[in-house]
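Researcher: Please predict.
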Amino acid sequence: MLWPMIAIALGFAGIAVLGVLAVRVFAEVRRLARQVGAASEQIQRAADDLERAATPLASRMSGTGRD
């Protein structure tokens, strides 16, 4: 009767460890998703700034006849 109880206890401990690791992975994935979202917003802002900066240059270049 001792061995089945030990096996059940070890099985429960293994599942508990997997549960804790799953929670940690979930928390890290959420943190990574927030960082990816922030980086995406920064890239979008930089692309908008680049487009605004390039517009006057493009209009000057098209007026010179160098198409």
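Model: The two ends are 89 Å apart (CA to CA).
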